[in-house]
UniProtKB/TrEMBL annotation, chain A:
It comes from Mesoterricola silvestris. Its EC number is 7.1.1.-. It comes from the Bacteria. This is NADH-quinone oxidoreductase subunit D. It is an enzyme of class 7 (translocase). Pfam families: Complex1_49kDa. One of its GO terms (molecular function) is NADH dehydrogenase (quinone) (non-electrogenic) activity.
TrEMBL record, chain B:
PANTHER family: NADH DEHYDROGENASE [UBIQUINONE] IRON-SULFUR PROTEIN 3, MITOCHONDRIAL (PTHR10884:SF14), NADH DEHYDROGENASE UBIQUINONE IRON-SULFUR PROTEIN 3 (PTHR10884). It catalyses: a quinone + NADH + 5 H(+)(in) = a quinol + NAD(+) + 4 H(+)(out). Keywords: Cell membrane, Membrane, NAD, Quinone, Translocase, Transport, Ubiquinone. This is NADH-quinone oxidoreductase subunit C. It holds the Pfam family Complex1_30kDa. It comes from Mesoterricola silvestris. The lineage of its organism: Bacteria, Pseudomonadati, Acidobacteriota, Holophagae, Holophagales.
Amino acid sequence: MAELNVEHARTSDSDRMIVNMGPSHPVTHGTLHIVLELEGEVIVKATPQIGYLHRGVEKLGENLTYQQFIPLTDRLNYCSSLMNNVGYTLAVEKLLGIQDPPRSRVLRVLCSELARIGDHLVCIGINAVDIGAFTAFLYLFKERETIYDLFEMMAGQRLHSSFTRIGGLFRDIPPEFEPLCEQFLDSCPRAVDEMERLLTHNPIWADRTKGVGAITPENAISWGYTGPCLRAAGVAQDLRVGQPYLDYETYDFDVPVGTTGDVYDRYLVRTEEMRQSFRIIRQCLDKLKEIGPGPVIIDDYKIALPPKEKVYTRMESLIHHFKLIMHGIDMPVGEVYSATEAANGELGFYLVSDGTKAPYRIHVRPPCFPIFSSFDEQVKGRLIADAVSILGAMNIIAGELDR
Amino acid sequence: MVIERIDEQLPGAILDRHAFRGDRTVVVDRSRLLEVVDFIFREGYQQLMDVTAVDGGQRDPRFDVVYHLLNLTSQERLRLKVRVADQESVPSLVSRFKSADWSEREVADMFGIPFEGHPDPRRLLMWEDYPGHPLRKDYPLDGGDAFCSQDIGASYAPDARSLNG
């Protein structure tokens, strides 16, 4: 398409210049290719080209069992893979009509909120780096390391966690988890404050972000915006409040809302969301103490694998283990759409089951896909420098954009 | 509820309906999709979350085009379905929802379902002269030999269609 655009520009208007942003420019966050048509320094048209990372995740999912798909969800958004695990597992549990044990539900909330903080840290930090503020990024990245340490304690993996199982979790958290989490809850809010001192009232940051990429609530809804970008435009839509899952209705937190929907408001909304997530994590730790030790996966060997001690000592459990691995779970015939509030917005999984061990159709609704589709409208009439800050604030994750 | 009101206002537009685990689905007559969408838009379903399709394989008509809509006020969701045969087109919803633009392009790219009245009907993920539509059930899992134009979509290894043997 790049060639076609060049041809069009040559014949129609000789003053127009084509600039390719990406596919491997540092500001394009992965591999995104954006063809910009410029008149002088002003962007006349932006044509995003996606598909560079397309791995056919949905097609693969149709040929794997429900359990085997969990590691593929990690690769959708590598900044918050735990959240993708939770979202997918909830969809399968909705299809099965089951619920995981209370302790697992609290742990799922805990790891989702940690992932949300990690995602926002990266988004704000990298957006600041793209715009030219490097120091804030360093303050934030130190805390992100602690989040990955916590993930490693939970799941045994830092980046691709594959932590959830259908009906619960892979394992309980180790005793060392809580002290480190407390330490994190103490140090990370301070880092966020430092970042705010560096950015929020910084005149250069304000000049580069205020009024850039502003969008009306009606337009944001029509473009299918969800998450921080929609809330920054003034629509108080949060699935954790609107359609609570994992007992989110029992947690005490606020939904920050912006007014203009510009890059500055998106930054403010994300910053405040991190503070709300600290509150939720604090409540999770209290709840874990309240619930005490207990199972983190359901006690139904037709869905979740029996514990290894039983597999080695009891015939019945060995058969269950074999049947689950070789034949999978007995799925009801039907279709569900399950959505969770991921860091970036609504992460939906649409599953169609025909009763066999593999889903007949599996579709991922990534949050950044509809947001990125409005890129042309957002950057029209602005400068390339604004395109960079808008792209960063949209938090495009190429892995889930083209799946 | 909105489904009863569609029945009242637009009799005959709904061909089939079912509910499963709290998800409500209505199958809409293809020729009346725009009417139904206009009606439920006025009823508050103003966010088109997602458009996708399901390939029924040997079934007739072959495809289901699936729309997920959200009512932001009441937080209710509704799934619309339209049944289409191979090569049959579906009316585009871009004039009503801006988010339909890329979603419909993706469905057209991955399933080969044309959307009538789409302002920009290019492929979205694959390149322009890519042969075949990867999410169709008869498309080989290993991707086939995309560069061999004589034998479009033929598998590199015909016996490697399933990862589970």
